[in-house]
């Protein structure tokens, strides 16, 4: 269960203050599939990043399964991101110097990769259909393949929450469909919570939760 | 993670290579500097080991050539307690040898050397120190235990001949070094041998000398000296018999050397009685000062090398902000990012150290081929280890600021910066 209460986020751009989120409150049940939609610049990514503990809100609180992100120490946030959150970006954000397999293992590189972790990473790459691409570099992979590596990376930690920021924004529609199929399948198999930012409502199903943002505020009627 | 850091360096080979050169050159400088000063120090120690008595000079005279003493001092020193041997010497630059004045010598030996097809090494050696004539009070020197040149005489089977003795008092006979024998080779290119003759002085003042002995101390500080009788040397050098250059003194027990030296300085206020280990410390101090000065220059070069690393690492971290954002998103802590970047620059430092060390080893080996005169550059494992260690430390220092900057980013900003 994600519990967002009155979250505010402001950026400073020189002298100017940009109010990206102006008091957002919402709840996303555990295991749900939620879509954040809205026009460009409305604050969708900001909300998603705050859920992923990539920054701290200026006000309000975010609780995930009872743990209050806003009150956590830096070290706790690191551990939280490492162990519980899977992130998928629009531009894949793989690391060019690492192979597909190593990219999946990134969360564990600083503390050492055990043989069982490596097996897990390989199994995940098999699951997303990249059995024969494990030792390729990102630039040797197509966009769809790169995004599948990113999905494997998000899932290796067995996350409680997977966050995706326009995961198909740089892919053609056929590949995009493929990515959503994989995301959906893995989400139901693992019963993780999935939150996706998109402005393509094509993928939204009737029983999904939809959060529509405009100007940093939630439109409640959707 | 170390492998990851390593790969990150290899991604930009040109930039990495440039930073590497920037740091390896000063490391080479440090190693070269220490190997030269270490070599010089060894040479000086070796040289001074051969002269174990006390050398009495005019106060503040830098060397016997620039010293003059009252000959009466010989008696006064001999009368002091624990003094065993006292031997007067006259030192000076001879006007010319074999018709060559020493201004012209450097140029002509270079030229002749080329004509004769001498090796670079031989010609380089010729350019070193000047020729010096030393006149010895022969009977007094015969009693010495530590007569440098007599002890360095080549063995008879290598054409060493004999040293000056009572038969040579007042005679135009001379002992020269193997180096001088080569320098003053005859027109056929044959080095001078015992029994050959040598002309000192020019015009009416020219005198003929018979070479009776050839020595080799192996030290370029000593091998420019020709030794003859003291009165003969006076005539050649125009030194009146109211002065001597220096007086060489031996104690009855080598351990009493400093006692004797102090006694001499107390009895004769206008002289310096120099013990060799004192000279050695003087020289070491001089070398130390030189070291410090050169070290300052090298430090500047090191600083430039470090700035190069900072610059390289700043460029490389700035263009990888998104990457650090991804790492942070995946749970890397600030410390992890800091360690990654520092590891990269430590690798840079390590490689710069290795490259600098290999260059230094090559240059020292080459240098030892070409530098003669007993100077052996030394580059031991300790020095190499120090060079590599220094380089790694420099690399780490150079990487700290870029690493800190990269680690300080808020993950969200890093991701957004990269996305643009
Ligand atoms: N680092 C930043 N500095 C200043 N303004 C920012 C920054 N990041 C985002 N913004 C602004 O915050 C608002 C919300 O941005 P974002 O969450 O990216 O919107 P969306 O993802 O819906 O397009 C936009 O007006 C954007 O310009
Ligand atoms: Mg966005």
| SS class of chain A | alpha/beta
Shape of chain A: globular
- Strand residue content of chain A: 25-35%
| Cα end-to-end separation of chain A | 20 Å
Low-pLDDT sequence parts of chain B: 121-128
Helices and strands of chain B: which structural class? alpha+beta
User: What is the assigned CATH homologous superfamily of chain A?
Assistant: P-loop containing nucleotide triphosphate hydrolases
Q: Give the strand tally of chain B.
A: 9
* Alpha carbon gyration radius of chain B: 31 Å
| Proportion in helices of chain B | 55-70%
Largest sheet of chain B: 6 strands, mixed
Q: Determine the CATH topology of chain A.
A: Rossmann fold
* CA gyration radius of chain A, whole angstroms: 17 Å
Q: How many helical elements of chain B?
A: 15
Our count of domains of chain B comes out at 2
Helix-strand pattern of chain B, N to C? HHEHEHHEHHEHEEEHEHEHHHHH
pLDDT average of chain A, as an integer? 92
Series of secondary-structure elements of chain A, N-terminal to C-terminal: EEEHEEHEHHHEHEEE
Task: Count the beta strands of chain A.
Answer: 10
Q: What ligand molecules are bound, each kind once?
A: adenosine-5'-diphosphate, magnesium ion
Short key terms for the protein model shown above:
heterodimer; A: 222 residues; six-stranded mixed β-sheet; four-stranded antiparallel β-sheet; 31% helix; B: 420 residues; alpha+beta; three-stranded mixed β-sheet; 9 strands; binds adenosine-5'-diphosphate; binds magnesium ion
Characterise this structure.
The complex is a heterodimer of chains A (222) and B (420). The mean pLDDT of chain A is 92. In chain A, strands 6-7-8-3-9-10 form a six-stranded mixed beta sheet. Chain A is α/β, with parallel strands linked by helices and 222 residues long. In chain A, helix 4 crosses helix 5. Chain A contains six helices and ten strands. Chain A has one domain: P-loop containing nucleotide triphosphate hydrolases (Rossmann fold, 3-Layer(aba) Sandwich). Chain B folds into two domains: 181 residues, no CATH class; 221 residues, no CATH class. In chain B, the strands form two sheets. Chain B has a six-stranded mixed beta sheet. Chain B has a three-stranded mixed beta sheet with strand order 4-6-5. In chain B, helix 11 packs parallel to helix 14 and helix 13 runs antiparallel to helix 14. The longest helix of chain B is centred in the C-terminal third of the chain and has 43 residues. Chain B starts with a helix and ends with a helix. About 2% of the residues of chain B have low confidence. The chains are: A alpha/beta (222), B alpha+beta (420). The interface between A and B is medium-sized, with 32 and 27 residues. The complex binds adenosine-5'-diphosphate (ADP) and magnesium ion (MG). Adenosine-5'-diphosphate (ADP) binds next to strand 1, strand 2 and helix 1 of chain A.
């Amino acid at each position: 269960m994600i519990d967002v209460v009155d979250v505010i986020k402001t950026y400073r751009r020189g002298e100017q203050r940009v109010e990206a989120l102006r008091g957002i409150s919402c709840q996303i049940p555990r295991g749900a599939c939620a879509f954040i939609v809205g026009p460009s610049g409305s604050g969708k990514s900001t909300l998603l990043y705050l859920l992923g503990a990539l920054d701290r809100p200026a006000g309000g609180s975010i609780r995930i399964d009872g743990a209050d992100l806003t009150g956590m120490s830096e070290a706790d946030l690191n551990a939280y991101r490492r162990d519980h959150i899977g992130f998928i970006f629009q531009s894949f954000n793989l690391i060019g110097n690492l192979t597909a397999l190593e990219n999946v293992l990134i969360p564990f590189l600083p503390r050492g990769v055990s043989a069982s972790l490596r097996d897990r990473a390989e199994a995940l790459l098999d699951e997303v259909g990249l059995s024969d691409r494990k030792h390729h570099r990102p630039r040797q992979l197509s966009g769809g393949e790169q995004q599948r590596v990113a999905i494997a990376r998000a899932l290796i930690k067995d996350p409680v929450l997977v966050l995706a920021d326009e995961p198909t924004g740089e892919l053609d529609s056929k590949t995009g469909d493929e990515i959503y199929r994989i995301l959906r399948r893995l989400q139901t198999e693992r019963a993780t919570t999935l939150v996706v930012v998109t402005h393509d409502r094509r993928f939204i199903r009737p029983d999904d939760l939809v959060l529509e943002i405009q100007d940093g505020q939630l439109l409640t009627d959707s | 993670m170390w492998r990851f850091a390593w790969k990150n360096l290899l991604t930009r080979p040109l930039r990495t290579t440039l930073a590497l050169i920037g740091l390896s050159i000063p490391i080479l400088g440090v190693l070269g500097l220490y190997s030269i000063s270490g070599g010089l120090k060894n040479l000086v120690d070796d040289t001074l080991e051969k002269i174990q008595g006390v050398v009495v000079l005019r106060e503040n005279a830098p060397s016997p050539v620039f010293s003059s003493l009252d000959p009466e001092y010989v008696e006064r020193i001999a009368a002091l307690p624990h003094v065993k041997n006292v031997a007067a010497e006259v030192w000076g630059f001879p006007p010319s040898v074999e018709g060559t004045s020493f201004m012209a010598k450097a140029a002509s030996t270079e030229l002749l050397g080329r004509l004769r097809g001498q090796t670079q090494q031989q010609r380089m050696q010729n350019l070193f120190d000047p020729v010096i004539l030393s006149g010895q009070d022969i009977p007094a020197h015969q009693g010495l235990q530590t007569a440098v040149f007599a002890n360095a005489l080549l063995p008879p089977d290598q054409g060493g001949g004999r040293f000056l003795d009572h038969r040579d008092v007042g005679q135009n006979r001379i002992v020269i070094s193997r180096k001088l024998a080569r320098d003053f080779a005859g027109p056929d290119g044959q080095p001078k041998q015992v029994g050959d003759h040598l002309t000192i002085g020019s015009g009416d003042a020219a005198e003929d000398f018979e070479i009776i002995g050839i020595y080799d101390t192996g030290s370029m500080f000593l091998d420019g000296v020709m030794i003859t009788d003291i009165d003969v040397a006076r005539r050649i050098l125009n030194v009146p018999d109211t002065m001597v250059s220096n007086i060489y003194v031996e104690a009855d027990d080598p351990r009493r050397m400093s006692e004797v030296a102090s006694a001499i300085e107390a009895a004769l206020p206008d002289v310096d009685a120099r013990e060799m280990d004192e000279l050695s410390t003087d020289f070491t101090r001089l070398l130390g000062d030189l070291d410090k000065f050169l070290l300052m220059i090298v430090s500047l070069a090191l600083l430039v090398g470090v700035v190069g690393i900072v610059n390289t690492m700043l460029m490389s971290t700035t263009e990888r902000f998104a990457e650090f954002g991804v790492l942070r998103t995946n749970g890397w802590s600030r410390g992890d990012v800091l360690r990654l970047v520092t590891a990269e620059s430590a690798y840079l430092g390590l490689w710069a150290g290795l490259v600098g060390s290999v260059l230094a080893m090559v240059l020292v080996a080459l240098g030892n081929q070409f530098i003669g005169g007993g100077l052996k550059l030394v580059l031991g494992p300790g020095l190499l280890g120090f060079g590599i260690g220094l380089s790694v430390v420099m690399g780490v220092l150079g990487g700290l600021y870029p690493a800190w900057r990269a680690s300080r980013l808020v993950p969200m900003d890093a991701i957004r910066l990269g996305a643009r």
